[in-house]
Design goal:
The protein is of the alpha/beta class. The chain is built from twelve helices and 14 strands. It folds into two domains: 231 residues, Rossmann fold; 106 residues, Hypothetical Protein Yjia, Chain: A,domain 2, CATH 3.30.1220.10. The strands form three sheets. Strands 5-4-6-3-7-8-9 form a seven-stranded parallel β-sheet, sandwiched between helices. The chain has a five-stranded antiparallel β-sheet with strand order 10-14-11-12-13, with helices on one face. The chain has a two-stranded antiparallel sheet with strand order 1-2. The radius of gyration is 21 Å and the shape is globular. Bound molecules: guanosine-5'-triphosphate (GTP). Guanosine-5'-triphosphate (GTP) binds next to helix 1, strand 11 and strand 12. Pfam families: cobW, CobW_C. One of its GO terms (cellular component) is cytoplasm. This is GTP-binding protein.
């Protein structure tokens, strides 16, 4: 049987609809990490991905590219607020068509998308080759209390999900871990799974919709009807994003100072940084989530440049750009050993 076919009850092959899984979760909770884990452990399943980056630099799309059969990206805005479902349908049409070589499609929502809207779009899709494959909500165990306090709508997202992944359990002690899992279980109607670095079993998401062990219920329009599309209630109504691009290297010490002095409004920063000869040939990918900051070390493959997306509330874009601009190294050939040493304390393992 090819992808997209399965046996019907009489033993004949019928064209199956491709399940579309919506992967949601607040900023930095670990959606891309989970998606990359699934892509690396696909057990031969062919996975199409539709990534919704909030900023216009496709950092998330960049982070899944290379691991995926087909990746498409919708940028600069929020998928959940596409004026109508047609835009999403057009993207899905390019992934799901008769004979499409895919077993599953995952839509990775931006960290401030409204999952209810995304699910509604998939359910109302006119595409005869897809079916809704479930809503997965990723929760950051370390940030859960704070995020919930700032965004009470998070409870709603957790409640709607078919599967809630309580991620980053390595970042909290055992007592907090149990408390957060307990709190999530109290709200969630679907299954709840603790995870580290998004490492859940791919079968949980990708097996036949009917065979899922978490598929005790699937969202319907009735579940989604509670609120009309009230844009002001969306998390992202309060958020904005900006980009910073530099083709000259940044100085590590100056950049660490910028990081330490950043305002609380700058919740999320992500993207690669070029520290020039100080960084050797290492490509440092920065991730900040609230006060937490980590660099992932990779190697440059293409041209070296810094490209950062900053997401938060009340961003003073002029001031931030000026501060970042002042991190550009006036003397990149002098190696900033102390800076790189200090930076190493933030390296992700
Ligand atoms: N310690 C720890 N860090 C994690 C875990 N999962 C993800 N991270 C880190 O958290 C940061 C954010 O992860 P992403 O996967 O980019 O989060 P995201 O939800 O895709 O982010 P947005 O798309 O910006 O909302 C990265 O630095 C990850 O390496 C985990 O289980 N434990």
């Amino acid at each position: 049987m090819t992808a997209g076919e399965r046996d019907d009850e009489r033993g004949g092959a019928v064209t199956a609809r491709i399940p579309v899984v919506v992967l949601a979760g607040y900023l930095g909770s670990g959606k891309t990490t989970l998606l990359n884990h699934l892509l690396r452990n696909d057990d031969g399943r062919r996975i199409g991905v539709l990534v919704n980056d909030f900023g216009s630099i496709n950092i998330d799309a960049m982070n899944v590219a290379g691991q995926v059969d087909i990746a498409m990206s919708m940028e600069n805005g929020c998928l959940c607020c596409a004026v109508d479902a047609d835009g999403v349908d057009r993207m899905l049409e390019r992934l799901a068509y008769p004979g499409a070589p895919l077993d599953v499609i995952v839509i990775e929502a931006s960290g401030i998308a409204e999952p209810r809207q995304l699910v509604r779009m998939v359910l109302s899709s006119q595409n005869p080759h897809i079916e809704f494959g479930g809503l997965v909500e990723v929760v950051d165990a370390a940030e859960f209390d704070d995020t919930r306090a700032r965004h009470p709508e998070l409870d709603d997202h957790v409640r709607l999900a078919d599967l809630v992944v309580v991620n980053k359990v390595d970042r909290v002690g055992e007592a907090d871990r149990d408390r957060v899992i307990g709190a999530v279980r109290e709200i969630a109607d679907g299954a709840v799974l603790p995870a580290e670095r998004g490492r859940i079993s791919p079968g949980i998401l990708f097996d036949d919709v009917e065979a899922r062990d978490f598929g005790t219920r699937q969202l319907s329009f009735a579940d989604l009807e509670e609120h009309d599309h009230d844009h002001d209630r969306h998390m992202h109504a309060a958020y904005e994003s900006m980009e910073f691009i530099a083709d000259r290297p940044l100085n590590p010490s100056a950049f660490l100072r910028f990081l330490n002095e950043r305002s609380r409004g700058v919740y999320r920063i992500k993207g690669p940084i070029d520290f020039g000869p100080s960084g050797d040939d290492r490509r440092f990918v920065l991730h900040t989530v609230g006060v937490y900051a980590a660099f992932e070390k990779t190697r440059w493959k293409g041209p070296r440049a810094t490209s950062l997306v900053l997401i938060g509330t009340d961003l003073d874009t002029e001031d931030l750009t000026r501060r970042l601009q002042s991190c550009v190294d006036p003397d990149p050939d002098t190696i900033d050993e102390l800076g790189i040493l200090n930076l190493a304390r933030h390296l992700d393992d």
